[in-house]
Amino acid sequence: MSKNLFLLVALVLGVWGVFGALDVPKQPYSGYSSDADGLVTEVDEDSPAAAAGMQVGDQVRSVAGVSMDDSDGQSTLRRAEVGESRTIVVDRGGQEATLDLTYARSELSFGSYSGILMGVIFLLMGLWSFFKAPHAGTRRLALLGCCVGPIFLAGPYLGPGFLSNLSAAVVVTGLAMGFALLFDFVIRSGKPNGYGEGGGGPAWLYWPAVLVALLFIALVIVQPDADGAFATMIQFVVGAYFLVYFGGALFMVVRNHMKADAGLRASRGLGMMLAGAVIGLAPLTLAFLVGLLPGDVTIPGGQYWSFGLVAVPITFALAAVKGGQAERV
User: In this structure, are 47 and 150 located in the same domain?
Assistant: First the structure.
């Protein structure tokens, strides 16, 4: 992939991210969280949900007249607008309750744009490393940024329909391939000549990514009924995939650092990579592992662990540039 093509992709993703940033103030705030089965797990204090009378433990049965079991209806239900009221029917201890929830405007803060910032860092650090020291390793980091960046950049709200489905399919495909690229890069970083055209991971490393991408695309197109068992199965498959690739990359970073001598560690920046992996990959690997356990296990502060992922593109890009320059000496 040439530098000009990378620049074109970066420009497209940059525009996508700008529209996503402009959409942030328009995103409605309900004030409650629920699991895949519609069970309310959290209600924020002084939120629209609290004002409507929603309680933790409520089972959401329908929103705006659309049953939670109606996956087709849910997929065509447009996003609520700020100030709009919707009727939410919940099951509370065997009794049906009807709530009128008026969506509010989210309070804008650094956290509102943190995901977009992470996407920009993934994209720019990958491109910087490739332009600074072009080789097989930094090419994979640039591709990684182009694949993973869109999941954080979010983009504009497209509404239900073909464009929304197409966007979701492209994003999840890129995300699945991005983790395979990450694993491949880590394998390369531990080999003396791994940043050359050879020396990377085996070709089959990308096969599970392709299968997971096809699964997501099929789900987006078919929109199957999402009963509890089916949602649990999909959650397990996704969690297992992320666990294997995140955990595998983390294991390889540690292994590379332990097996390398002091000279290789210094020339390849393996210490930086280890720090980035511990900060960015280790917490999410643990989160994916916990997510596969039976029952509803909650990790204190787990919702903030993804922010540490930003250490990965920064430290890996610095290490790849350093390693590539050392290989040419």
Answer: no
